[in-house]
Design goal:
The complex is a heterodimer. Chain A is 73% helix and 1% strand. Chain A has helices at residues 18-36, 44-70, 84-109, 116-134, 138-156, 163-194, 199-207, 217-233, 242-249, 252-277, 282-305, 310-332, 340-371, 385-388, 390-404, 410-424, 428-454, 467-485, 488-493, and strands spanning 73-75, 80-82. Chain B is globular and about 75 Å long. The chains are: A mainly alpha, B mainly alpha.
């Protein structure tokens, strides 16, 4: 890294970044071949995206075994990481892409607007997301963040007939731009203080004996701005304003995509940055995270109650879930406790389970709201659903109960892990706040359940659930229940999650 | 993964008690699509088999032994030290039997009127959850069961209740869930703190209670977190406000189950988890709990006296009765706790029966307003007779079951909670007042036109009530077999508590 004259590119471990390459190949095929050929037969665009994500998942699983055998390592001159934490995130992201692609295909082909671009954007966003969660460098992270965000802006505005969708895209773009600017400025200030953007080197610089002063203002502002940037992306209160509008305006499958892929990527990256790069300043950011978490939990669960639109309700519920996940980050900030690693594991488990859960929930919303002639996405569309279609009603009930954290669903396993990590380090107040907010949030899910089971619908017309959506929702509900009954399945895998790549 | 157990058991009767209703529920739900006419039969077979199993358990239970019997332990979530750990002792035995008997009676006796399939499926799921709560010896498993019970009960109240059912069901769900939110944090903290003493992470309640010692301060906080959940479930004053709504709006079957077994999960939880895990903290919190219990007794009685709706009256009487049980539980003497355990069962039988009778009145007259009813004794003497027996059992008349429990509680509590006991005794008198007054208004006098056609008990209803009356009489006249099975466990429980608090 000394002289420019002797610049030699880092060696690239092609196999270790194969999931990324697979996603890239899929995106290119869809874009290039899709635009040069006549319209493909029904569902083929989506199935290409599905095949791509399956390939990426398989490759990630292969890499998972490598990491189990050989340990975690850094890639490409230390800019990317290969560890279980990143791989779990990749698998969650690719699975979400898979499920969302299935739902999208039915959604779009209903009015004949199925096109390759949307799937290519899903895959591009997934590339950005995977780069984000496996980056070991703030600049690389920013590249991933922008790749993800730009794709999401387009996706949010992808319904050209709906002005709400346009508005959502624009709103998301402007606020997301702000957030990126905050993040980037934070990176610049941190770099100014430490002279590096590598996460691991940052930690070394901040803990070495000729280090940055304990209360270096520039550094703290830098860390704060990075946190604000993330807070926008994961919609933590008070930076959550855009979420309900964007979730409501965007086409429902895209909302599912944002709530799963977008959240997972930003949260996992947030965890990694703060746990790897800034543990030496955890006394400072730990308190901020605690306040953000509590505020997010309260805002997410309380404001959800007064919503009448189901997508807004679920948007607020996703905000409160982000608050829950931050409880895990707060736990990880207790560096002196032996159990600080639990927080990281809990967050990994939470985001993986939440991704499937939220896609399933929005999948049902897509199917139901699509069929209803009443005001789009209002709660009325769900009235009497369970009476007309007990199975669809039951599936949605399982999702809602899981979101509320009822036992025997994956949602409970996720919440349990986070609360356990908080209690293990002695953050009792936050654990209690989180649980109380979970009860408040449960009221929202009960309202949807009341509409489905206990109200009479305007029509007794049956909602038709197309084949691919059926598969996607079925997979999600099976996963939700399977993990609920046998949490060991995922806990077995995640025991080594806290061993992050450091060299 | 459920690994193979190290113990060799002849037949996992306790697991069967939990799994059978669960399977029944799934089968009923599936039958509903193809063979709706078999739904009731399926529900019946499932619940009767479970009932028979619980009676077999009663017969096979070794009286005179204090420890847990028929223990079944299988590793469930190894990473968190959680196992499928079930066991029964004298404290839980009769609650399990009550759960086993009450459900088939409700399923036979009460017609849901609509959507039979889902009604029976929820009922059976509820039975599985309640059974699991009474049998679980693992804190995690207990929490799972305690919490999962909310879902079927929510749907039973919301789907088959009266006018305000959605409001009542939501209130029930949120109140109870709010209580258990604190308990979840408490459970996790208990396990985390116990890990330091035990060296391993385990949710096994016996291991934690016997092996771990908590600092005074920690134990108090932990006890409070458990106590909030159980106080809401019982419900203790001032957490009781969900109960009258839930009871009044629930369908008859739901009310019977709610009063009969669901509320007992709170009082049982106090004993099995609150006091057992944190005896010192329980001693410390005693004055507050005594006071709340006694306020509940008096307040419940006064509120019951004022009610115009017969079902609401019974609901408030529950608040009073459960006050007695809590008083006995925390008196922590052998007699009082034995009395409390007996009274849990008694209240389930007599209040369950009262709700059934009120339900029958509603079926016939489509009103539960006391003012609308008059002179039923003249047109339906047998009905009135049964009502009298059940009511007197609830009042605590000697020779009937209610007396045994209340008497033991009052005697046992007099030592440790003298003044509270004296005030509680007034509650006994008030109970006689509100129930007899209600009886007088409903059954005495000359029936007016609407009441003169009140139908007598039919054969099915008669048989149903006969079971209740038989239990009431048997327990009242010959409580010895029950006491023999309860007392050893209670004595060893008291020893445990005294060993920790002296």
């Amino acid at each position: 890294m000394n002289g420019l004259s002797a610049f030699a590119g880092p060696s690239i471990e092609w196999l270790s970044i194969s999931p990324l390459l697979a996603l890239l190949a899929g995106a290119l095929i869809l874009l290039l071949v899709g635009s040069l050929t006549n319209e493909w037969p029904k569902h083929w665009y989506s199935l290409t995206a599905v095949a791509t994500s399956v390939a990426a998942i398989v490759l990630s699983v292969v890499l998972w075994r490598d990491v189990s055998n050989d340990g975690a390592k850094l890639l490409i001159g230390g800019s990317l990481t290969l560890d279980h934490f990143a791989l779990l995130g990749s698998i969650a992201i690719c699975s979400a892409v898979l499920l969302v692609s299935l739902i999208t295909s039915d959604y779009l082909s209903r009015d004949g607007s199925d096109a390759p671009e949307i799937y290519a954007l899903y895959l591009t966003a997934a590339i950005g997301a995977v780069v984000m969660i496996s980056s070991n460098d703030l600049v690389v992270l920013f590249l991933g963040l922008e790749t993800l965000s730009l794709s999401l802006y387009l996706l949010a505005a992808s319904n050209r007939q709906e002005s709400a969708s346009q508005e959502a895209g624009l709103k998301y773009f402007i606020l997301g731009g702000f957030a990126s600017a905050f993040f980037l400025y934070g990176v610049a200030l941190t770099y100014g203080v430490t002279g590096t953007t590598r996460l691991i080197d940052l930690n070394t610089a901040l803990t070495s004996y000729i280090s940055v002063p304990r209360n270096d203002v520039i550094l703290l502002i830098g860390i704060g701005m990075i946190l604000v940037g993330f807070a926008f992306k994961v919609s933590l209160a008070p930076f959550q304003m855009w979420t309900p509008d964007v979730y409501q305006g965007a086409p429902t499958p895209v909302t599912a995509f944002m709530a799963s892929v977008g959240k997972v990527a930003a949260l996992v990256a947030l965890m990694r940055v703060f746990v790897v790069a800034f543990p030496s300043r955890s006394d400072d950011w730990g308190v901020v995270v605690l306040v953000l978490s509590a505020a997010t939990l309260v805002v997410g669960s309380v404001v959800a109650i007064v919503q009448t639109n189901i997508k807004r309700m679920l948007a607020y519920s996703s905000i409160s879930h982000a608050g829950f996940i931050l409880v895990g980050l707060e736990a990880a900030s207790h560096r002196d406790s032996v159990n600080a690693g639990d927080g990281l594991v809990a967050v990994g488990v939470y985001v993986a389970l939440y991704a499937a859960l939220v896609v399933g929930t929005f999948g049902v919303v897509t199917v139901v709201a699509r069929n209803s002639s009443s005001e789009a996405n209002s709660l009325d569309a769900f009235k009497g659903l369970a009476k007309n279609q007990p199975i669809l009603g039951l599936v949605m009930t399982v999702f809602l109960l899981a979101q509320a954290g009822m036992p025997l669903t994956s949602g409970f396993v996720a919440k349990f892990g986070v609360i356990q990590s908080a209690v293990a380090v002695g953050s009792y107040q936050l654990a209690v706040i989180a649980m109380v907010c979970a009860v408040i949030a449960a009221f929202v899910y009960l309202r949807i359940m009341v509409s489905m089971w206990l109200s009479d619908g305007a029509t007794t017309e049956k909602v038709s659930v197309p084949m691919l959506s059926r598969v996607a929702i079925g997979l999600a509900v099976a996963f939700t229940l399977l993990i609920g009954f046998l949490p060991s399945l995922i806990l077995d895998l995640t025991s080594s999650l806290a061993e992050l790549a450091t060299k | 993964m459920i690994a193979a157990s190290s113990q060799v058991l002849s037949f996992p009767i306790l697991s069967a008690l939990v799994v059978l209703p669960l399977l029944g529920s799934i089968i009923v739900a599936l039958l509903g699509r193809s063979r709706p006419e078999w739904v009731k039969l399926g529900a019946l077979i499932s619940s009767v088999t479970t009932g028979a199993l619980s009676l077999w358990l009663l017969a096979a239970f070794k009286s005179g032994e204090a420890g847990f019997q028929f223990v079944s332990q299988h590793l469930w979530i190894s990473q968190w030290g959680i196992s499928w750990h079930l066991g029964v002792d004298g404290i839980s035995l009769f609650l399990v039997v009550l759960t086993g008997i009450l459900f088939p009676l409700v399923i036979v006796g009460i017609d849901p009127h609509h959507n039979e399939t889902s009604y029976f499926a929820w009922m059976l799921l509820l039975q599985a959850g309640v059974m699991g709560s009474f049998l679980a010896l693992d804190l995690f498993l207990f929490f799972v069961m305690f919490e999962i019970v909310l879902v079927p009960m929510y749907f039973l109240i919301g789907g088959w209740g009266y006018d305000q059912r959605v409001y009542a069901a939501t209130k029930f769900f949120l109140y109870t869930m709010a209580g258990s939110a604190f308990m979840l944090v408490g459970i996790i903290a208990t396990v985390a703190l116990a890990q330091r003493d035990l060296g391993v992470i385990t949710f096994d309640v016996v291991k934690i209670a016997e092996g771990a010692s908590f600092s005074t301060n920690a134990a108090r906080w932990l006890f409070i977190s458990f106590a909030i959940a159980f106080a809401v479930k019982v419900p203790l004053f001032p957490f009781h406000t969900w109960l009258p709504d839930a009871h009044t709006q629930a369908p008859t079957g739901g009310s019977v189950i709610l009063a009969g077994v669901l509320l007992k999960m709170g009082t049982y939880g106090f004993l099995r988890f609150g006091v057992y895990l944190f005896p010192q903290a329980a001693m410390w919190a005693r004055p507050v709990l005594f006071t709340l219990a006694v306020i509940g007794i008096i307040y419940g009685a006064i509120a019951a006296t004022m009610q115009r709706d017969l079902k609401r009256l019974v609901a408030y009487s529950s608040v009073a009765h459960l006050g007695f049980i809590v008083l006995g539980t925390f008196a922590l003497s052998s007699q009082a706790v034995t009395g409390a355990v007996i009274q849990m069962v008694n209240h389930g039988v007599s209040t369950g029966a009262l709700f059934l009778l009120v339900g029958m009145i509603y079926e016939r007259r489509h009103t539960r307003e006391i003012a609308e009813l008059r002179g039923i004794q003249h047109v339906a003497p047998i009905f009135a007779g049964v009502f009298t027996v059940v009511m007197l059992s609830s009042v605590g008349l000697p020779g009937l079951n209610g007396f045994v429990g209340e008497f033991l509680i009052l005697i046992g509590s007099f030592e440790s909670a003298r003044w509270w006991t004296i005030v509680a005794t007034v509650g006994v008198v008030l109970a006689a007042l509100y129930l007899l007054w209600a009886y007088q208004r409903v059954f005495h006098g000359e029936p007016d036109e609407a009441n003169s056609s009140f139908k007598e008990l039919n054969a099915k209803e008669g048989l149903l009530m006969a079971v209740f009356v038989a239990i009431i009489l048997f327990t009242g006249i010959y409580p010895k077999p029950m006491l023999e099975r309860i007392e050893p466990s209670v004595n060893s429980f008291i020893e445990h508590v005294e060993g920790r608090t002296k």
